[in-house]
């Protein structure tokens, strides 16, 4: 039996995919109004057109997740630390799988370290990679990375894989975390490039140089290069920087065009600030990430940011 904490689009999509594949799933929704609507209509408004299968059980009581063996944490990264601090002790003894992509802005920790600091005693895993909630919920073929540095990794891989959701396992938790987090920052920058009318050639250059930044910081923190070149790094980067379904890309698109940004959780904004601090501490050069962080904090205009990036000293690639 699988529990999922967080009834947003992604958490619900995973619940739908797992339940359709025969798993018994408990999905926790914090908002009573959302929970009532989902129970009554068997749909989540955040996933239009998707009917919730019968093996998907809805609850507003976190204690119900205690009857499950594995709990997926499907909330925004910046909410994870507070959620775990208030979670029942029984939940912290389960195998926990983080589905959040980001870096905690207060502690500069990834999901694995946040779970450890909260006192989690079971397996601590990370599920990440190129995926949109609507694709997973509709049963479209999707491949993700499941990272965990514990003996439970292969068992978790089999538990969470379905006929349409293929998981590849990795022991490089740091690489998987940073790939999933940092690609959101580059996606904002890619959206800015397209929104400002700079064209696809500029976007391709931006993605390439952004990937170099991701790799530099990840390597300095102990990640393996092959992890960043895999699904949780390059794969997720390509998807997020090129699709209008990406909330980070569409936010950047609005910034570049000078139009109001859609209301949505944009993990890349906080991650840009956290990554800039990490890079500064470690002496890592991350000009694109720094630009996004400064734009997010209104410390620089778009025109100034472009001029700064284009006037950097010429150097060997």
UniProtKB/TrEMBL annotation:
Domain of life: Bacteria
Keywords: Cytoplasm, Lipid biosynthesis, Lipid metabolism, NAD, NADP, Nucleotide-binding, Oxidoreductase, Phospholipid biosynthesis, Phospholipid metabolism
Phosphoprotein among keywords: no
Compartment(s): Cytoplasm
Domain Glycerol-3-phosphate dehydrogenase NAD-dependent C-terminal stretches: 172-306
Chain positions recorded as NADPH binding sites: 10, 30, 101, 133, 247, 267
Keyword match Lipid metabolism: yes
Class of enzymatic activity (EC top level): oxidoreductase
Main location, first listed in the record: cytoplasm
Active site location: 183 (proton acceptor)
Pathway(s) the chain acts in: Membrane lipid metabolism; glycerophospholipid metabolism
Glycerol-3-phosphate dehydrogenase NAD-dependent N-terminal domain segment(s): 2-151
UniProt-listed InterPro entries: 6-PGluconate_DH-like_C_sf, 6PGD_dom2, G3P_DH_NAD-dep, G3P_DH_NAD-dep_C, G3P_DH_NAD-dep_N, NAD(P)-bd_dom_sf
Main function: Catalyzes the reduction of the glycolytic intermediate dihydroxyacetone phosphate (DHAP) to sn-glycerol 3-phosphate (G3P), the key precursor for phospholipid synthesis.
UniProt family annotation: Belongs to the NAD-dependent glycerol-3-phosphate dehydrogenase family.
Protein name per Swiss-Prot or TrEMBL: Glycerol-3-phosphate dehydrogenase [NAD(P)+]
Organism (species): Pseudogemmobacter faecipullorum
């Amino acid at each position: 039996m699988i529990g999922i904490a967080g009834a947003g689009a992604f958490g619900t999509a995973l619940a739908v995919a797992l339940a359709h594949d025969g798993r018994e799933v408990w999905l926790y929704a914090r908002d009573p109004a959302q929970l009532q609507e989902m129970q009554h209509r068997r749909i989540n408004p955040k996933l239009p057109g998707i009917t919730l299968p019968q093996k998907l059980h809805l609850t507003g009581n976190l204690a119900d997740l205690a009857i499950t063996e594995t709990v997926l944490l499907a909330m925004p990264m910046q909410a994870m630390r507070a959620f775990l601090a208030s979670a029942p002790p029984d939940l912290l003894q389960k195998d926990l799988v983080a589905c959040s992509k980001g870096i905690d802005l207060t502690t500069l920790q990834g999901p694995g370290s946040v779970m450890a600091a909260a006192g989690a005693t079971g397996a601590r895993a990370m599920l990440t990679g190129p995926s949109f909630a609507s694709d997973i919920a509709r049963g479209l073929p999707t491949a993700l990375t499941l990272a965990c540095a514990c003996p439970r990794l292969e068992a978790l891989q089999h538990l969470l894989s379905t006929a349409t959701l293929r998981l590849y396992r990795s022991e490089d938790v740091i690489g998987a975390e940073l790939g999933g987090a940092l690609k959101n920052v580059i996606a904002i920058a890619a959206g800015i490039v397209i929104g400002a009318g700079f064209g696809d050639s500029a976007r391709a250059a931006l993605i390439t140089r952004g990937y170099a930044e991701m790799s530099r910081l990840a390597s300095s923190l102990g990640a393996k290069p092959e992890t960043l070149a895999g699904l949780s790094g390059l794969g997720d980067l390509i998807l997020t920087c090129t699709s209008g379904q990406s909330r980070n890309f569409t936010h950047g698109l609005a910034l570049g065009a000078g139009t109001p940004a859609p209301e949505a959780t944009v993990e890349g904004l906080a991650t840009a600030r956290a990554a800039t601090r990490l890079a500064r501490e470690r002496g890592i050069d991350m000009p694109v990430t720094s630009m996004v962080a400064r734009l997010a904090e209104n410390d620089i205009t778009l025109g100034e940011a472009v001029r700064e990036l284009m006037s950097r000293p010429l150097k060997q690639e």
